[in-house]
Write a structure and sequence with these properties.
Length: 180
């Protein structure tokens, strides 16, 4: 479940600013992507590889979801261009947890991209800040998604599959379960 939360948060964080700032982030190229992630940095870090399938509609839905969630919970959410990179700085209060982050997105998102997120996490009432570091290296594999993957699917290590659209409440399953 922790891995699903990391994946959901990072997916929203990489696309959410496109709706909130005058700088538009390019969306990932539709198709099959392989993403190598490292969380924690250093000796206690965890490294794993994900496979994901996306299409233009899913990318746009993630922008809308990210904007809705982060826009309500972040006191600061700024994005700017720095040369060829995109820099996102945020300060968010989510429940009893306050996070600050500086994210740098590099690459064209057509063939490759990298994402580096450095930040802090503090639980209210606890004096110590936890330093965080997460990196992603995304590589476009194919215009067609194989292995039964549908747009929004993320294939996790060990074979677990989740759909980011369903988690965000924008997929078909979430649509039918939501009251109108």
């Amino acid at each position: 479940m922790r891995l699903a939360l990391i994946v959901t948060t990072l997916a929203a964080a990489t696309v959410a600013p496109a709706m909130t700032q005058p700088v538009d982030l390019p969306l990932r190229r539709p198709g099959y992507w392989e993403i190598r992630m490292m969380t924690g940095g250093g000796p206690g870090g965890q490294e794993f590889t994900l496979q994901t399938c996306t299409d233009a509609a899913t990318e746009r839905q993630m922008v809308q979801y990210g904007f809705g969630q982060l826009g309500r919970q972040c006191q600061r959410y700024d994005i700017r261009r720095d040369g060829e990179d995109y820099v996102i700085e945020s300060d968010c209060q989510i429940g009893q947890t306050r996070t600050t982050a500086r994210s740098v997105i590099s690459g064209d998102l057509r063939a490759t991209y990298s994402l580096r997120v450095e930040g802090t996490v503090q639980v209210l009432g606890q004096p110590e800040l936890q330093q965080t570091l997460t990196t992603q290296q995304g590589r476009f594999v194919s215009a067609r998604c194989g292995g039964g993957l549908r747009p929004g699917d993320i294939l996790l290590p060990g074979g677990q599959r989740l759909n980011i659209r369903d988690l965000a409440g924008t997929g078909d399953q979430a649509e039918t379960a939501r009251p109108r």
